[in-house]
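Complex record, two chains
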Amino acid sequence: MKEIVIKADKLTKKFGDFIATNQISFEVTQGEIFGFLGANGAGKTTAMRMLCGLSMPSSGSATIAGFDVYKQTEHIKQNIGYMSQKFSLYEDLTVKENIRFYAGIYGLSKPVIREKMNALLDKLQLRAEENSLVKSLPLGWKQKLAFSVAILHEPKIVFLDEPTGGVDPVTRREFWNLIYEAAEKGITVFVTTHYMDEAEYCNRISIMVDGKIEALDTPHNLKTNFNAASMDDVFLQLARGAKRTAD
Amino acid sequence: MKRLLVILEKEFRQVFRNPAILRMVLVMPVIQLLVFPFAANYEVKNVLLSVVDHDHSAYSQKFISKITSSGYFKLTDYSPSYDEAMKAVEKDKADLIIEIPAGFEKDLVKESKSSMLISVNAVNGTKASLGGAYASNIIRDFNSDIRIQWMQMPRYNAQPTIEITSSNWYNPTMNYKFFMVPGILVTLLTMIGSFMSALNIVHEKEVGTIEQINVSPITKVQFILGKLIPFWIMGLVTLTLGLIVSWLFYRIVPLGSIGLIYVFGMVFLFTLLGVGLLVSTFAETQTQATFVSFFVMMLFMLLGGLYTPIESMPDWAKLITKINPVAYFIEVMRMIVLKGSGFADVKTQFFSVLGLGIFFNTWAVINYRKRS
């Protein structure tokens, strides 16, 4: 039995009367790729932000890597990586400077940073661009770089919020190769997405509708249970019942 | 500590890569200091004068030439009647009308007394009151000239008078630039302190990189210090540049200690950066931050004693200047530069600014949240 690294129990976030995330409970084990699906406004980002310690839960409980989201956020932060919907690298810094900065703030030593930076630049084939400002890179490269930077300090868990939004299918495929690689190294991947083909790549997925988790299983089991040909079908069957309009 | 260095390295790189910031820190102060002191001046000159002379006598001529040779007035209109002169005022061709009645000379000689009328256009209050005062002064002067002329060699002074002579201390030539330059320097530091730091932090909110900082182990104190220190240093660079410009172009050498100016400057910047930081914790976008900072800055500057003396403000406004770091620093700068005041003389101001700094920064740190 693998270690449980994310455990949420009736986790809830209210904004005034609006319940963004309504008593969600789930567990994610180490090394798993956990897909977090849902229509726009279903509460995915809110849930993720609570797990990362960016947002204070209204009620319920959760532990990340064994640390409590209410009290031990600083421990959590040392153990997670995060890639937000908004672009998370500094556009006015070069590739190398971004790597050095993010590695530096997690306390990696200079020789370690140098070694990791070289390996990363080779892997992403960014050698030629190492001294270019990040804003000059194509979006796909930026996303891959942002992901690699988010796991540079070898976190236990990495949270990805719609990491492949707006990039072409080839780059998405390459991006997922990076995710698999990270998972093989034992990093747990928690990813939100709108792409159903990406959902198929996950070990398990949960589908959120109106702030609640309506389904949670492996892609195969979900398709069987919902008697659906594809994940698209499963998603449509669930999301059609949504009352919230997308924002 | 090591983490703070990593953050500072990043902040400095970004600053040096941003031409707008460098321009603001290096070029703007120099230009402001070169242009502003010439234009911003309390003194009223070029009061446009309209004369209505019904007398056309030797004395009225003498009076007119006296008033025009004072240097404060420009005779732009010479009207036959008061109504005509009013038209000149309405067309903005005159600010002040002097009407000399018919029989001015006759009355003066025969009755030993005469009168004239001064009307002032008070749309521009400062110009009006100072222009009016100048004119009355000249008339008084004219009066005593005549008296001296008529009473040849009196055995004793028929009318005892107290003559007031004044000497201007600390700025003997009443050079307004000496007065303005130190004040302008303060406004420059105010801009850098309250404006640039606020925009910088809010920029991170806008592009979303602040999220990435907030999920990292960077503590909020580290983040805030990382933002404040670069701007603090840049403010000191601007101060240095300003002192050099005032020495090169205006020959202003502080009478007091330059070290004291820096000590005060450091504390002042700390306070203003706290204000900027506080603004940034409330603002979500750079537009919001700009408007709020601008409002605060205008308030600080208009109630800072640079343009209008604090002594002549109403009591409620004076109260506001007590929590205005800019007012303290302008006062202190003038004291150190012109009067050579030492630390003992500016102690109260020093601790007031320091206290305000601690207040604003503490509020900002409490209000800055890594978690919503």
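Note: Residues 31-44+51-59+79-239 of chain A form a domain with the Rossmann fold fold (CATH 3.40.50.300).
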